[in-house]
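Box 4.2: Ligand-aware structure prediction
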Amino acid sequence: MPATTHASYDAVIIGAGMSGLAAGIRLAHFGLRVCVVERHSSIGGLNSFYRLDGRNFDVGLHALTNYRPSECRRGPLALLCRQLRIAREELALAPQIGSAIVFPDARLEFTNDFEHFRAEVHRHFPDQKERFEELVRHLADYGELGSPHTLCSARELVTAYIQDPLLVEMLFCPILFYGGPRPHDLDFGQFSVLFRSIFMEGLARPLGGVRPLLKTLVRKFKSAGGLLRVNAGVREIVCSGQRAVAVRLENEEVLPTRFVLSSAGLRETMELCRATPLPPAGEISFFESISILDVQPADLGLDKTVVFFNDSSRFVYAKPQELVDFRSGVVCVPNHFAYDEPMTSGCVRLTALANYDRWAQLSPEAYHEAKLQCYQRLLEAAARFVPDFRDHVVAHDLFTPTTIRRFTGHHNGAVYGSPEKRYDGRTHLENVYICGTDQGLVGIVGALWSGISMANRHVLQEHSRPGAAPFSVVADDRGPF
Amino acid sequence: MTSAEIQKAILDILASIAPDEDLSKLDPQKPFRDQMELDSMDFLDIVMELRKRYRVQIPEEDYPALASMNSSVEYLLPRMKDIPAA
Ligand SMILES: Cc1cc2nc3c(=O)[nH]c(=O)nc-3n(C[C@H](O)[C@H](O)[C@H](O)COP(=O)(O)OP(=O)(O)OC[C@H]3O[C@@H](n4cnc5c(N)ncnc54)[C@H](O)[C@@H]3O)c2cc1C
């Protein structure tokens, strides 16, 4: 079904990242007139892809979380596929080989089999065994993609169970790196969701990276009749009283709509509504490097999938004073997932905390210079924890917080968005909802789920009740469709 | 639509929601929930698919009638008898 521009929409969705596309699929599938508007020329948001010097790169992807084998019909990933009408096999996910959390005097390995991690914790922290088990039982009482909105400090709750501070730091390190929107701590509900999705379910990656997933999402959306517009940034959400009536694009075009779902971020969406006061912007951002090697990483002894490292017994997760915080980081080897056929070239991704302001202040020349210097220092920093691969790098690409800002519009290049989340998706306007990162679920699976659940809860369920105002299309006027 | 056609319509909907399930072994007497992995969200999708495909409106209080194949067909027959099969 070819999509066509309409005079007005049932829903306009801001952003063609994971959450916006997932929301779009749900609404278009049930016959709503939906338009997804994306500021950039390409889709994917924080998890986009691009081509450079004849090579394919992913912006974000280390791994998808929440992995379970495809025979397993339970869990968030399976539900997500059903909701999007995607066969689980279509994702072609390959599970991780094995990962590790490495601190100076301790190392915990984990795989997609939680028993393995459990045994590691028991072995390295024998006096914490019972307490760790109690924590796990507590976490298991949460729903699968649970209630991320338990608004108490995860640090407080976890330290009430676990007495050895080193184990606490080692548990927080991967969880904060893969989803912490604010310094040091996060809501216990978010901790619980991330703990399950990383340790109890697991990590996986499609051989082709994020590209096939995004292509599948776009194909689903378009074939359901949805319209995707790129190079269509929203300048304003036009309001009348307590409701939005339209969105105005940067080219001044006005799209009247009944609902707005925004993945632009909470503060960013409020700004589009010209609302005050504004919620705080996030400050956690990263420096990320991708190195292409002339050998397979395993040949150098780099045999893990992901290594989270930290060089002291205390893990500091915050905006650093310097451009980049080299004390801790993440090493991800995309080659180390159990693909049917191996990835041709060796690749290593390194991630470390970074300071947006420091990067934003640099002149273009200084910025370029700083990027290369930080890359060298990050390679050095990682070489303390994984085999040194510096002599084998044949190509690289680097992102800074300003790159992330430029590509997603998130203030400060805040990868996990605002420290303040809107778990119910509501805003001060009756028909404007937040989806994605600032609704409170992060990561690819989290963002997809956020889009689905916000579309269901605020748009579809309200209007699938008998007696509810029918959507334009239900009345059989699909026009060109 | 006849009972058989309604049954086929429901099977088509289930297959679209859960393409990975083998529906050939579905026991029409037993609740869907006991035989396949369906979340409450998936149940809502059955209702919405029926509305989308056949314009049948099912009020929330009647959702329990959709628990199994037999109960669904029994519930839907009077409501869909005038609808032509797709
Ligand atoms: C370097 C990096 C590595 C990552 N690694 C992983 C990983 O390994 N695994 C994982 O699960 N997650 C990872 N993530 C996180 C994951 O990418 C995000 O959590 C997820 O993609 C967020 O999706 P979203 O839909 O909420 O938001 P976004 O992806 O931010 O999408 C928002 C979209 O809205 C658009 N937009 C904003 N403002 C406007 C406007 N005014 N008008 C029109 N469009 C607008 C933006 O251009 C963007 O496309 C990583 C992120 C980064 C940056």
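In the box above, the bound molecule is flavin-adenine dinucleotide. The domain at 9-48+211-280+420-475 of chain A is CATH 3.50.50.60 (FAD/NAD(P)-binding domain).
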